[in-house]
Amino acid sequence: MKLYFSSRHIPALAQLPLQQRLHKLREASSKLTGPEKMLLNLVKLLVLLPPFVLILRLSDDWTAIIWVALLLLAYPLLLRPLQYGLCEKYISLDRNQ
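-> structure tokens emitted (97 positions)
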């Protein structure tokens, strides 16, 4: 699985405008299998759980807010490439049909 940081880098979507790329990605994400969806949800959980734990610790340590912000900023940087990589094979299949 190749990781793409932008939908423009997916070869099957490179020439399409933004709205069509988003539509194709939405269609492809609906075709993901159960294990692929579970993998995405586990990654979401692993990225979103630490900020909430750190928020609970804010009363003890105010520097935790910096880590919360960094983790929340990392959410799209970690999740989007994984989602685009998993959806790529369904976009390619759709284009060939």
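The CA atoms of residues 10 and 18 lie 12 Å apart.
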